[in-house]
Fold this sequence. Notes:
Elements: H1 2-19, H2 23-46, H3 55-74, H4 79-99, H5 105-130
Helix pairs in contact: 1-2, 1-5, 2-3, 2-5, 3-4, 4-5
Amino acid sequence: MIGVLYLSLAAIVAGLSLWRPDGEYRTAALKFVGASVGTTLIYGATGANWTAFPLLITIVDGGAMAILGYLALTSKRFWPLWIASLQLVALFSHFSSRLAPNAASYAIGIIQGASGWVQLVILFLVGIALGTSPRQAT
């Protein structure tokens, strides 16, 4: 049930990104959906679990972090900083699972999954509520 909700919300975010003419939102949303699909395919193909340190998923998250970090540094908006920081949390959780593989592996899995959910909700709210025009500083 949770997987269906996640995929449904991801499909809505992808649809909003194609519908809205905003380049920043489109880049962030399509990166997120692409990384989610890539991670799911890698986990399905390799049979890895959340406690392992699959190098391919770390590379996918690192690439996503590079794109979102660049977006956050060049944007005039605030929400890309939240998305990039949550991606950084997910990326560092991979390294913590490698450094201490026996320490709270379930907690590391929750951190990796929860950061994705929060990113998805932020992208959904930005796509619905904030529209596409940047706010002007006063």
